[in-house]
Amino acid sequence: MPEPDQQKNIEDDSLESQLEKEDSLREEDSELDAESPDDSVVGEEESSPVENEAESDVAGADPDSIGAEFGPIKRPGSGMESNLNWGQSVKTGSRGSKKKTIILIVVLLLVVVGGFLLLKSNNSVKKLISAPTPSPTPSSTPAPTEIPNTLDKAQWSLEVLNGSGESGLAKKIGDKLKELGYPVIKTGNADNQNYQKTQIFVKSDLKDKTDLVIADLRDIIKIASYAGEIKDSTASARIIIGKDSI
Predict the structure, then answer these.
(1) Which of 16, 40, 43, 147 has CA atoms 20 to 30 A from the CA of 228?
(2) Could you read off the pLDDT of 182-213 as tens digits, one per residue?
(3) Neighbouring residues of 190: CB distance < 8 A, sequence distance ≥ 6
């Protein structure tokens, strides 16, 4: 048990220590009041020595130990900065969403336009396939101009020569030709009497009508075919009677 003098000294030291703490707390409060006068509360009751001691203990304590007991200490301005960062992230997100929306709209428009063009091209192809192929119009070939197939007997002056060996046959046939309307300008004997077939010689300008004369005379004499061109006579044609006409 301590002596009375020692007990008194201990109490004096404790009182001085408490007074020093109160003085330090007052100085800190005055400094805080000078830095932020708006934060002071009017009419606030004066703190008790115990509360001042607790506040001094908190003020002198290590921030890390305080954070361990009471959680992280919020720094002035940290809430504002986080709000600004959140606002910027919101703006960035809204801009990104707008870009995505615009890109989506453009893609949809391209799909719609492409589908329309594809449908239109398919319809065009179907029309081309289903369209009937026009059949070629037959070109009308102009009918050839018919040359009058008439025989003008007046153009045919005839020589009738006998080459069959039968006497008087040239004059006999000549008379029949006159009756048909042919002008007979000469009758007589051929260069020989051994012609087997009756022949006809015609001028070049009447050669294309030889078949008409042969067809017209078939009931009187049998002319086989055109034998050649007559050159040494004024007659249009020369008929040499052969044995086939006897």
Answers:
(1) 147
(2) 999 999 999 999 999 999 999 999 999 999 99
(3) 161, 162, 163, 240, 241
Q: Is 4 helix (H, G, I), strand (E, B) or coil?
A: helix
Going by the DSSP 8-state scheme, the letter that residue 168 receives in this structure is: T
Q: Are 172 and 221 spatial neighbours (Cβ–Cβ below 8 Å)?
A: no
- Is the Cβ–Cβ distance between 240 and 163 less than 8 Å? yes
Report how many domains make up the chain: 2
Judge if 158 and 78 occupy the same domain. no
Q: How far apart are CA 230 and CA 200, in angstroms?
A: 9
Contact 22, 51 (CB under 8 A): no
User: CA 104 to CA 109: how far, in whole Å?
Assistant: 9
Q: Could you count the other beta carbons within 10 Å of the beta carbon of residue 68? A: 10
pTM above 0.90, yes or no: no
Amino acid sitting at position 169: L
The domain in which residue 75 lies consists of 1-35+46-85
CATH number for the domain harbouring residue 226: 3.30.70
Q: 189 - beta bridge partners?
A: 162
* Rounded CA separation 209/212 (Å): 5
